[in-house]
Structures are given as C-alpha cells and as structure tokens.
Amino acid sequence: MAVLTIKNLAKTFNVGTPKASRVLDDISFDVRGGTFVSIVGPSGCGKSTLLNIISGVEEHTSGDISLTSDAGGPARMGYVFQDPRLLPWRSVMKNMMYVQDDRSEATVSRAKKYLDMVGLAKNADFFPGQLSGGMQQRVGIARAFAVEPDLLLMDEPFSHLDAITARGLRAQLQDIWAQSKKTVVFVTHDVVEAVELSDRIIVLQPGGRIYEDITIDLPRPRRQTDPTVATLQAEVLGRLETMKAMSRTASAVA
Amino acid sequence: MTDQLVGAAPAAPPADPEAGAKRTARRRRWRLTGLVLLGWVAMFALWEYGSWWFGSRLLPRPLEVFQAGVEIVESGNFVTDFSASVLKTFAGFAVAAAVGAPIGYLMGRYNYWRAFFHDGVTIAGTIPAIVYAVMSLIVFGLSNLGPILAVALVSAPYIALNVAEGIRGVDKSLITMSEAFGRSSQQIRREVLLPTIVPFIFAAIRMCFAVAWKVEALTEVFGGRNGVGFQIRTEYQLYDIAAVLAWMFLFIVFMLIIERLVLAKSEARLLAWRPQERSSAL
Ligand SMILES: Nc1ncnc2c1ncn2[C@@H]1O[C@H](COP(=O)(O)OP(=O)(O)OP(=O)(O)O)[C@@H](O)[C@H]1O
Ligand SMILES: [Mg+2]
C-alpha cells in the first residue's frame, strides 16, 4: 500500500512577485510502505523543498499530496536534518521525549531502545554539547525512528560528517532500517550513498522535474566492498552525468 | 641497605616537567596578593588620615565603624532589615520581569510591536536611576512599595531589551524541527523560546543588580518603613555617623555575597547545559 502519494506537485516561491521562481514542476510519484526511497539531484534542484512540503513545514503551490497511516488517523512523521537540531538545554533523553506525544512507559522504553540501537544508551543524561557531532547526529536519527513514523524523512543526514563517521552511520542506518522497516524518503546528492541504502532512486533534474526513477534490486546488507554494489553505483553515476550534460546543453540552447 | 633504597625509590616525587612554569605562576600569584593587601592598607591609611583631618565626629575612624558594625551584628536586628531590603529588591526584579519580559517577547517576535515599543523602552532605560527613586517616592510616599517600584522601573527596560535580543536570536532551525515533529505552538514557546531567553533575563538582572540595590536603599532612606535604608535614616537622625557607615558597609558586603553566591550559583545551575558554564557549576 502506498504511504505517500504525490500528484502533479508544483512549488513556486514568491508567487505573484517579480522574484517568483518555480522550484518544483509537475512531480508525481508514490512510495509504498516499508520501502527506502532516495531523492538525488544536483544542488538547488529542490530536494529540501520537496521534503519540507511533504513534512508540512512548507506550503505547495499546486498538486496533491496524500499520506496514509497504518493506524488510520493522521500520519506520523519523523525528520532527520542535515544538522542534529537538538535542544541544547535538554538532555539526550529529554530531547528524545520532546517529540513524543505521551510520556507512557512504553514510549520511554521505545526511546531507550532506539538510543541503544545507535549506541548511545550510556549518554542518555548528557547534554548535546557534551557529545561529538557524529553522536549528536545519531541522537537525531534515534529521535526520528523513536516516534515510529509512518514516514521518515531524511535530508542529507551524513553530509556534515567526515567520511569515516558517515560510513559507520550509514551501516548503522541500514541495520536499524532492516529491523524497523520504516518507510523512508532520503535526500542526498551522493549517488554512491543512495545506491547503498535505497530500494529506489528518484533523480530530480535542475528545474525540479523527475528525470529518472531507478529501482535498485540488490541484496542487503550492502557493503561498499561488494563489486556488484560498486558496478551499480558507477552506472547510476554515469546516468546522472548524462543528465547534467543534457541540461547544460538545454540551457545553452535556451 | 640496598633494600631500603629500593623501598624508598617510588616514594620520591617524580621530576615534574612543569615545575618551572608552576614556580613562576606561584610567584606571580604571591605578588598579586601582596598588591591587593597593599591596596587595602593604603585605603585604611587614607581613611584614618581623613578622620583625623575632618574630626571623627564628621568622619568616624575605621575602628569605630567596625565596632558599630559588630554592635549591629550582635544585636541581631540586622537580619530583619537586611531580609526586608533583599526581599524588596527581588520583588522589584519580579515585577520588572513580569512587565519587561512580555514586552521584550513582543518586541523580539513581531516587527510591529518592536516599532511601537522600541523608542519608549530605550528612553526608559536611559533615565537616571535617581529619577526613578524620586518618582517612586512621589507615588508611594512613606511605604514599602516605593523601593519595589524604583527597582522595577530601573530594571524593566533592560529586561525588555535583553529579552527582545534573545528572542530575535532564537535558533529558527529548532522551530522548524519542532514543527516537523508536529509540536504545538505552546510546546515551542515552553521548550524552545523560553530556554532561549532565560540567559538573557539573567544577564539583565545581573547588569541591573548593582544599580538596583543602591536605588532600593536610597528610596528606603527617604521613604522606607524598614530595611537598611530605613536604619541608615534612623542613625542619621541620631547623628551616629559611625552606625550609618557600618550599616552601609554591612549592606555592601551582604549584597556582594548575594550577587556572588545566589545569582551566580543559580545562573550556573540553570545554564548548566552551556559548555562554558558547566565547568563552574560542577
Ligand atoms: N524560502 C525560499 N524563498 C525563495 N527561494 C527559495 C527558498 N527556499 C529555497 N529556495 C530556492 O529553491 C531552490 C531549491 O532549494 P532547495 O533547498 O530545495 O535545494 P536542494 O535541492 O535541497 O539543494 P542542496 O542540495 O544544495 O541542499 C533554490 O534555488 C533556492 O534558492
Ligand atoms: Mg537541501
């Protein structure tokens, strides 16, 4: 069943002013429950804007978005940002509880469970300032999983980290995802990362249209060292280069 | 013999590579302490000379003031007066925070309100404290409300301006985060905005404190019914200058202790999450 359905979505910033700019144009796709979908594309093509519209933080100009939750009711969403975005004046555990709707024992133990999964059970009482950047980002990931979201949105969650930390967290994310089977929409400009993590990659082109929709059918867990992973990464990267070259010629012609 | 040597070896202190630097630091500390002591001695010498010059009826000698202070402390009634003055000071802060913080919140949050309040609050912050003391006396006359009003008037503009500054500097990305996770605007106010402005309220109170308790005492001198200022007035009417000075000094010491212990400690506790505050809080 589709958790997220997007039909003919468009977004124009500053509508009706001279500064008006169309960022997303006629986007349609849907995301089945339990799948991991990546959105890749060059900088400025509207990836973050799309995610913000899905999360409801940003309004869209036209088109439809529908979200369904397993339970009926309104869909729950989790969001992992590029930066950790923790409340610096609350302990790690209190940060986990801030985004929860209730303080029941079940909720507390669920928050603890995810904190444990990212390896920070011992740091529950620390303030964010006492953690390294990578650890803070892990709290951000645990926080989003712990709300048991119907849809989990992630916006380049590893792009601020060094390569080694990022690789470790990607492996951790694969593990947590394999256990929880959440529906994820993951934004990145790193194709290699997208191939490693996703069931499906949606490529956006400059101007905010979908260029390609690629299914990644590789067994999990995927490791960087696996040659089939590397081959597919190279292939997708090649297609993206073609797209960039084409859009350059297109803009040169226009 | 050999056994003894082997046994003694570990007890010998290991050569400290930083010994030289430590010695220099210690010497510098001693020199600073010496200068502080010298400063005190010079101050008392000047005072002694002054009371010899003016006569000790006009300017009592340090020892006389000290004895008067001991008498005040021994009699024990200073406790009620001190606590009355301190309570009035903090009541003034409470009033100032209750009025200033919401105004600051509006100023920081909305440009319209900022336009409305900005000039008035700035002017209110520039008016000398003594004017507020006189105004409070005119309004309340002989009453305990005068000192409270004076402290409130002096502090409220600072609190408003500081809170406005704090709100404007709020981390917008935390608000986006809260909205993405579906937090209500009441939760955002309590968990994001309020903690953001607490350090600014503290900064304002600490900034005002030095002025506030002097204004409080001054207002008490003219219109108080109890408190340190009231005692100073009483002693003045009895022409006991030594007691006037003793009350003043005791109050200064007391207020410095309050500032160092109460304010600084509660600030450190409340702001323990800040990396630079943590070391001093523990
Ligand atoms: N609030 C806004 N007002 C006007 N234009 C905006 C606003 N937010 C984003 N844009 C524009 O929308 C376009 C897409 O921005 P967006 O942040 O979605 O890109 P992105 O694909 O996430 O890029 P990156 O990979 O660099 O994060 C950019 O050209 C940006 O200038
Ligand atoms: Mg982005």
Overview of the structural elements:
- Chain A folds into 2 domains: 2-76 and 149-253, Rossmann fold (3-Layer(aba) Sandwich), CATH 3.40.50; 89-147, no CATH class.
- Helix content of chain A is 37%, strand content 24%.
- Chain A has helices spanning 47-55, 92-98, 105-117, 133-146, 163-180, 191-197, 227-253; strands at residues 2-13, 21-32, 36-40, 62-67, 77-80, 151-155, 184-188, 200-205, 209-215.
- In chain A, the strands form 2 sheets. A 6-stranded mixed beta sheet of chain A has the order 5-6-7-3-8-9, with helices on both faces. A 3-stranded antiparallel beta sheet of chain A has the order 2-1-4, covered by helices on one side.
- Chain A is globular and about 60 Å long.
- With 282 residues, chain B is mostly helical.
- The longest helix of chain B is centred in the last third of the chain and has 39 residues, at 185-223.
- Chain B contains 12 helices and no strands.
- In chain B, helix 6 crosses helix 7 (145-168), helix 7 (145-168) packs antiparallel against helix 9 (185-223) and helix 9 packs parallel to helix 10.
- Chain B has a single domain (66-272), classed as MetI-like (MetI-like fold, Orthogonal Bundle), CATH 1.10.3720.10.
- The interface between A and B is medium-sized, with 22 and 20 residues.
